[in-house]
Amino acid sequence: MISIKSEQELQLMRQAGKAAAAARDAAGKACLPGVTTAEIDQIVRKVLAEYGAKPSFLGYNGFPAAVCVSVNEEVIHGIPGKRRLVEGDIVKIDVGAEIGGYHGDTAATFAVGKVSPDALRLIEVTKQSFYEGIKQARAGQRLSDISHAIGAYAEANGYAVVKDFTGHGVGAKLHEAPSIPNYGPPGRGVRLLPGMTLAIEPMINMGTHQVFILADGWTVITADRSLSAHYEHTVLITSGEPELLTE
Ligand code: MG
């Protein structure tokens, strides 16, 4: 069952989305050589507090931080800690914010100093795959039209789509129905309706699509240690253009 949000609920989601976006961007600016990932967590906590938002991820299934910081071959769910970023790293920042019981969820990939042209291309293609996906995020389209557009674009650019993790509905819960894979044939799944709020989040690898979880129980890395990029917004389906609540 996919929930349709009321205007009141959407007002809260817009506020939560704004907070999450501000924290994401502040974290991205802090992705500099010598900065620890724990320092990035502190920045995210501070910005969310300034917006009157709670970090959605903190304590979620026991996650110990306010932000997921995943470096290079780490795909998602990296735990902030003592690691110091170095020039050439690519860093995935994933932030959830909650205001008044409603969540916004967003992620982006940031370059630390000068990174390789290959890494930059991966970051750009991953971001563009999201924008290809949301061309299909319109009332009347089927859910997998989004999935197909993302996957087809990433694969046409020579990359692999992570299949073990997906996008998701978001709202009163951080993760709601439906699951939104980033691959597969078009024309399947529910028809999109105005008022649906979806966290659409391509996770794209330079090498194999296969991933596994480290012994910390959280960090997902590529099986071949190739670079991975991530890009996510909370998207509202409307009767016209989709609205990005975390822009
Ligand atoms: Mg998400």
Quick tags:
alpha+beta; Creatine Amidinohydrolase; binds magnesium ion
Structure description:
The chain has 247 residues and is an alpha+beta fold. It has a single domain, classed as Creatine Amidinohydrolase, CATH 3.90.230. The protein contains 4 helices and 15 strands. The protein has a 5-stranded antiparallel β-sheet. Strands 1, 2, 4 and 5 form a 4-stranded antiparallel β-sheet that branches. It is globular. The site of magnesium ion (MG) has 5 residues, from loops.
What's the short version?
With 247 residues, the chain is an alpha+beta fold.
SSE topology:
Blueprint lengths: L6 H23 L7 H14 L3 E2 L11 E5 L2 E3 L13 E10 L2 E10 L5 H18 L8 H14 L3 E2 L5 E3 L6 E5 L16 E4 L2 E3 L5 E3 L6 E3 L5 E3 L2 E4 L6 E2 L3
Antiparallel strand pairs: 1-4, 2-4, 3-12, 4-5, 6-10, 7-8, 7-9, 9-14, 10-13, 11-12, 14-15
Helix pairs in contact: 1-2, 3-4
The structure holds magnesium ion.
What value does the average pLDDT take? 98
Major sheet strand order:
8-7-9-14-15
Going by CATH, the architecture would be Alpha-Beta Complex
CATH superfamily: Creatinase/methionine aminopeptidase superfamily
Rg, Cα atoms, Å = 17 Å
Overall domain count:
1
The level 1 CATH classification is Alpha Beta
Number of helices: 4
Strand runs, count: 15
Secondary-structure class: alpha+beta
What small molecules accompany the polymer chains?
A: magnesium ion
* Largest sheet data: 5 strands, antiparallel
Low-pLDDT ranges? none
User: How far apart are the first and last residues' alpha carbons, in Å?
Assistant: 26 Å
Helix content range of the residues, please? Answer: 25-40%
Q: N-to-C SSE series?
A: HHEEEEEHHEEEEEEEEEE
Question: What amount of the residues lies in strands?
Answer: 25-35%
CATH topology-level fold name: Creatine Amidinohydrolase
